[in-house]
Every structure is written in structure tokens, then in C-alpha cells.
């Protein structure tokens, strides 16, 4: 499954889009800079115009997991924070130079198109989450990596191997072994 697109034209007309953009605040982030940290209260929606970010969780023992990657055209917000009011449970960090549009959720709620836009965001995120959940529950590491390559073409060239492994829930050593096996299969 390819990542479903976020498409404003499905939920708003040109006039609503112009009003929406009047609320936007531009932000550039250099690599290794954070948009927010676990424990923050990110009351905003983010649209990625350029660059690549990761949502990361670091456990007390230092193990890191990648919840998600975000790149050009993606829109995201911390749904857990939005729905519960609790602080963010993960951090969002730039992996590449990023140009972002930030929208305060309080501003967005003023728009007549917000309910349909919010529903669209939920539908897109649900499709992404369902796909990843089924993949993690039903497939082995090799199938997860092959799905990653097929679903996100070119992303493997932008993301360091240890982060791909953290996204797939495997070790970097396992990822290296999987790549060697796939290379051998493709040669033979």
C-alpha cells in the first residue's frame, strides 16, 4: 500500500484554503533539531513542505523506536495529545533540512472546513496505522523490510539503516542480514 495522500481539495474550496493558509506559520528546522519533545504539549498541526522528520520514542533503557517518518506532503498532529490532553509521548526530530507549515489547532477549529479536514486526517492516519499494525503482527522482519521498500520508494536512501531498523522493530544487524539475503536472491 502506498502512503495515502493528504489532499486539501477533498475537504475545502479555494476560499477556505486561502483562509487556512492565513493561519500558517512557517518554520525551518535543521537536521537534529526538534519540533517537539516527549513531554511537550504540541497543540498544532504540521504540514511538511520539504524535508524528512522522524517521530521517535526512547525507552528508559536507551532503546529507540521510530513511530513514523514524515516527508513532503505529509500532515500530522499528536492525536493522543489532542484527544487526551496528556503531554506528547514521543519527540519529532528533523533528519534533513525541513520547511514546515505550522497551524495552531485553536485557529483551525474556527474554520468551517475543520470537521471534514479533521476527518480526512483521521482516515489517512488510520489507514497508515492499520497497515503498520498488521505488518508488525503478521509478518516477519524480511517481509516488513520488503514492504517498507515497496511502500516508500526512495525513503531507504534518505534514512540511515539504524533508523529503518528501529522503524521495523528489528536490530541493525538483522537488517544487514536481510539485505544480504535479498541481494543474494536477486543475483541468483
TrEMBL record:
Matching InterPro entries: cNMP-bd_dom, cNMP-bd_dom_sf, RmlC-like_jellyroll
CDD domains named in the record: CAP_ED
Gene3D superfamilies: Jelly Rolls
Database matches in Pfam families: cNMP_binding
Source superkingdom: Bacteria
Stretches assigned to the Cyclic nucleotide-binding domain: 29-111
Name of this chain's protein: cAMP-binding protein
Amino acid at each position: 500500500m502506498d502512503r495515502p495522500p493528504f489532499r486539501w481539495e477533498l475537504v475545502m474550496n479555494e476560499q477556505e484554503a486561502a483562509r487556512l493558509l492565513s493561519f500558517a506559520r512557517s518554520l525551518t528546522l535543521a537536521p537534529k533539531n526538534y519540533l517537539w519533545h516527549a513531554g511537550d504539549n504540541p497543540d498544532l498541526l504540521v504540514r511538511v513542505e520539504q524535508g524528512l522528520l522522524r517521530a521517535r520514542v526512547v525507552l528508559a533503557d536507551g532503546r529507540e523506536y521510530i513511530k513514523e517518518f514524515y516527508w513532503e506532503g505529509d500532515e500530522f498532529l499528536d492525536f493522543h495529545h489532542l484527544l487526551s490532553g496528556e503531554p506528547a509521548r514521543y519527540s519529532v526530530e528533523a533528519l534533513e533540512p525541513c520547511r514546515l507549515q505550522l497551524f495552531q489547532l485553536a485557529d483551525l477549529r474556527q474554520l468551517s472546513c475543520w470537521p471534514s479536514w479533521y476527518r480526512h486526517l483521521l482516515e489517512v492516519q488510520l489507514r497508515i496505522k492499520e497497515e503498520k499494525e498488521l505488518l508488525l503482527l503478521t509478518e516477519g522482519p524480511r517481509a516488513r523490510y520488503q514492504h517498507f521498500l515497496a511502500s516508500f520508494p526512495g525513503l531507504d536512501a534518505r534514512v540511515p539503516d539504524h533508523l529503518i531498523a528501529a522503524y521495523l522493530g528489528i536490530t541493525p544487524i538483522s537488517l544487514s542480514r536481510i539485505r544480504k539475503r535479498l541481494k543474494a536472491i536477486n543475483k541468483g
